[in-house]
Amino acid sequence: MHMVAGSFAVVTVDAFVFGNVSTTTGIEALVAVNYSEQNACQSIVGIDACSMHESCIHRLKGGLKCTESGKRSSIPVRSGPPQSLLKFKNVTYMQSKTSMPIKIGVLYSTTGVTSLVERTQLQATQLAIEEINATGGVNGREIQLISLDPACMPGNYPGMAEKLIREYGVRLIMGCYMSSARKAVIPIVERQNALLFYATPYEGFEYSRNVFYAGAAPNQNILPLASYMLSHHGMRVAMVGSDFVCPYESNRIMNELIQERGGEKVNETYLPLNATLDDFKSVASRLQALSPDFIFSTVVGAGNAHLHRALADAGLDPFKTPVASHMSSETEIAAIGADLAEGLITCAGYFQSLPTIENHRVVALQKARFGDSGSTNVCWEAAYFQMHLLAKAISICESDDPTLLAHVLPGLEFDAPQGLVKIDEQNNHTYLNPRIGRCNSNGQFDVLASASELVRADPFVIAHTSPLWTAEKNSNLDRLLPGVTP
After folding, report:
1. At what angle do helices 357-370 and 115-134 cross, to 10 degrees?
2. 349 shares its domain with 470
């Protein structure tokens, strides 16, 4: 049967399955065949449910809305083989192949306050795509990047996301760093049935079926870091953060953990993203007088260098009053300077210093491709492995359709530089390998403690239980302190 663009065919389906619920009721499925030279595909756009009981129309992992008996149900599922989603019997499914490129939109900033880290995320995405394309692409299809620069301005993201979708035909977007940017893009991808892949640790308390989160959730970095610091450094905590969503939410979680452990918050201060060195010197002077056991920093961007310079000028010893920050990585250390950042303690799944074979391989590729301009870090690694996970999903379902991918991605695993990672089947977040690291004089991190197994993301921090591995005395702790002989 020859079909042209926009034509429809009515076929009778004798039996079908939605998830684990099946029916043998005969129904008529309205099948739209969208054919063009760019992409030939067959799409199920609706089912006449008049003869079906409403219990037969079930949520397909969030993709199908329940309807009352006798009303039409819309199924937002389209191109590619449906075996992983819909299992039809006695129906011939026509699938057409395409060799057209797979378009990936990118919203990482190359200018602006957090561009140092975001440029590494862009580089990681480029590196992963170059690896994939060098081996023939995905099922013979080349991946193409379409990158826009939001300049770290949250107000730029919605319009640029719309532009990627409407003008460039992109349905898969990598990007955003600050939470305010991510939250600005989510309504766009939800409305347009696109997917956002977010590669930055964040404050949690969020779920969207149109977002996949490769960065750590609070129980994978804030909770272990808080537990480690409270166990090894003391209970009097000062907090300093940048004035945007993530620091407020991160400090709220830290506040709860301090209270549960019987600790004391001695300070909580927020500074604008464009705060000056003098602004930070004022804060550092106050902290010096308060003499906290450690400082929990959620400062980002250029403010990191100002904070550490101000603390040093105020005479605060980074080993007696260490800075703990889950938002600082090798890239921030390079901007701060190892001489000022030495002693900083963080929690992350990835450090450039990790001795895994895969890490050594990918770091070498990164340096060969981008030189010293692209230091690897936890956000870089998340951007790298999420691109490979997406390519794996596209290969499995032989389609770049967002709805198909949203059902294939959960459960996928990848051997990343940090070790094995896995997309959670329930919440679109990622199983990671948390580690506590301390910055050394070379600007790299020495691992002080690490989880013994993959840690599932708990974005809503339902459990506040301190991980046992963070409280154990580490034999490397004294050895890594300056001036201490093992």
Report:
1. 100
2. yes
